[in-house]
């Protein structure tokens, strides 16, 4: 059965991680995979996570199965973190939340659920979008179309072109939006743009699908959730796929969640039963440990404060590195304007350099980034920023 198989291309981001690991040069810099790094280049376990784990170790009493939706307390706390405590969608019991294996698990379960509701529906994704969106959504049977999003020359959102494309969408089509910290461009919708796209989706009967994997790593937890909260307050139905990988640093524990907003509490009950059936058909129940950590942190005043402080340090470090990289490039006397790096949000920006220059950075300077020129800003540090800036200057001259 397997003898006719051919090898498929690897995930370009994860395979770059492997190349970086094999590189023995001591000055190597990893700007590839989107994980947060501290000044020393480590991705540490957050202190609040460690403290919550210690509590769990002594207080956890059973390892029996949890249900298909995961932990009810996790689901309640995470919905509050996403939407805010007093959101009408929560008060009106119009949402169903389920703990999932990472944001990827949430994306796939939402896609399966949507395919179950309306087989073969069309999802509009931004051009460009995160590479994994394509297999995660299309493998569930959804059709993909793209709307223009990022202008690589002007370094800004192509908002008019995006709106014109979405005007062509048919009633019932799905629109995938990044809640904040757009991966890969770092260019986010502003408030007026969120209002306008919400109005368009309402008017045309489109279903909003928001992927939020970086809440708290842009401007702050509430600021980064502006779009999700606004859309949820104005539309009858929407779906959300969220991740705790970055903002809790729980990557390998696989913690995420999905939210389905329905038009009424009665419809939410039915939607919930459909979501659980979907989950049952795939993995039955999510892993517990990571979500138990999140729920412990969000249920404790002191652990929550500790986590918020740590998250603030992370987002301030990223925003500081954005300013420093722009400044360091200016000091190299480059002709290009890199001020867009300062305006963009989250871990990623496109440097806007070509493949040859990217390869030269990797081979000659041991600086790694994905082929699109997307860099993970969090991979910079005061110890390497001059080196990175001078190397970029060398290859773009
Ligand atoms: N969505 C986006 C845009 C991402 O960048 C990520 C990245 O890690 C995810 C979803 C899902 O992440 P995970 O499955 O690791 O929680
Ligand atoms: O875009 C990134 O770098 C992160 C991490 O298959 C990631 O979102 C990359 C590839 C992948 C899963 C996660």
From TrEMBL:
SUPFAM superfamilies noted in UniProt: PLP-dependent transferases
EC number from the UniProt entry: 2.6.1.-
Keyword Transferase part of the UniProt annotation: yes
UniProt keywords, alphabetically: Aminotransferase, Coiled coil, Pyridoxal phosphate, Transferase
Pfam families assigned: Aminotran_1_2
NAD as UniProt keyword: no
Needed co-factor(s): pyridoxal 5'-phosphate
Homology family: Belongs to the class-I pyridoxal-phosphate-dependent aminotransferase family.
Quaternary organization: Homodimer.
Name listed for the protein in its UniProt record: Aminotransferase
Organism of derivation: Pokkaliibacter plantistimulans
